[in-house]
Amino acid sequence: MGQSTTVATAFTAIIIIAGVSIIITSTVSSFGVISKGIDSMVSQSEAVLNEDMEFVSFRLVDSQTLRANVTNTGETSIRLRDFDKMDCIVTYTESGTRNSTWVPYVQAGDTGSYWKINRVFFNGHVGDEVNPMKLTAPVYGSWDPCEKIEVQIWLEASNPSFQYVTLVTPDAVKASTDLIMEYETGVATVTTGSTYVDFAHNLGRTPEKVQATPGVELVGTTFWVSNVDSGIFRINLGSSLGFDAPFYWRIE
Amino acid sequence: MASSIVSEGIVLVAVVIAAAALSQVFLTSMAGLEHETLSMSDRLSDKMQTSIDVISAVNTSSTTVKVWVKNTGTSIIPSSVVEMSDIIFGRIGEYSHVQYAESGPGWAFTLLNSDDTNWQDSETIEITITTSSDLEGRLLLPLQHL
């Protein structure tokens, strides 16, 4: 075997080694890139699987302000600094026209339409223990599992009527409520000398059922309900009394 | 003897030239293969990291629909790329491709909770689809794809 054969063999070996190393390098690199994508998908899926929230209750403070209690029913915490990545979409009617708008999270709550956190509750008490929230600047803390936040939504609109609210977490987990009260309860008092009391309710529709129970003995007179509509109902007395007559009521 | 050495030398030079040429072709092919592999895995990774979700959609008038879409992936999507998105929209059975149009019939978008012109993870865009004819009956959400 001459030198030429040796050189040719050496060259061939070098070429094969170089080729194989290029293939290995590119394969490892592509695996690295793909695994990054898989990591991203997995963390997104985990967030979606473990994140959840639920509207508990709501009340209208005035025509432009709605307060709703929302509980973190998932297993993840949402940092307060990520709340600006949450979405709040409100559907309302204004002068008979139906509108939907995306409302920004503004904890300072001083410009245009906004939503913010008013308070946080844990175990029925105001305040939270884990990653406690500080709601004034500089804000910090987290909305942790089982904690309930009171969200305030303010709309820059003329006498809006709230219809529907959707809240979306940074990972696109949604909760929504139709803002329809199933029932309402309270106490209305027919004052001394009066024969009726009008009570403004917040059902937003004409109640199908109205129940009223006197809180005192109605000596020598009767009572009934009238003028039921989407805004008020009236409790009447057959004749006026010499004392205040409270009535416990429930409408649905 | 001398002629044998000369012959051997000539063959040696020929082999070296042939091997060099072969190695050039081979290594160039390998480099191309590496580039294609990396490029393909990059595109695959991009697809895996790109994800969007339609979070809500409402018709605000008889010819306008608002759709809120959230970037649920980790890709940063420039506004200029969002404009190249395809939106297929319409009544059931009558879907059609809607053109991007900043005004008039078509679709336009606004970045909502973003500090810049990029659509980043967890940020939302508001898409307004305007049609030239009244939308009646049931609407279909856009079949989104980037």
Describe the structure.
The complex is a heterodimer of chains A (252) and B (146). Chain A is of the alpha+beta class. Chain A has three domains: 1-50; 53-177, no CATH class; 184-251, no CATH class. Chain A is built from one helix and 17 strands. In chain A, strands 1-2-9-6-7 form a five-stranded antiparallel beta sheet, with no helix packed on it. Chain A has a four-stranded antiparallel beta sheet with strand order 5-4-10-11, with no helix packed on it. A three-stranded antiparallel beta sheet of chain A has the order 12-17-14, with no helix packed on it. In chain A, a hairpin with a 2-residue loop joins strand 6 and strand 7. Chain B has 146 residues and is α+β, with helices and mostly antiparallel strands. Chain B has two domains: 1-49; 52-145. Chain B has a four-stranded antiparallel beta sheet, with no helix packed on it. In chain B, strands 5-4-9 form a three-stranded antiparallel beta sheet, with no helix packed on it. In chain B, strand 4 (86-89) and strand 5 (96-98) form a beta hairpin. At the A-B interface, helix 1, strand 4 and strand 5 of A face helix 1, strand 1 and strand 2 of B.
Structure characteristics:
heterodimer, A: 252 residues, alpha+beta, 3 domains, five-stranded antiparallel β-sheet, four-stranded antiparallel β-sheet, 17 strands, 19% helix, rod-shaped, B: 146 residues, 2 domains, three-stranded antiparallel β-sheet, 29% strand, disordered C terminus
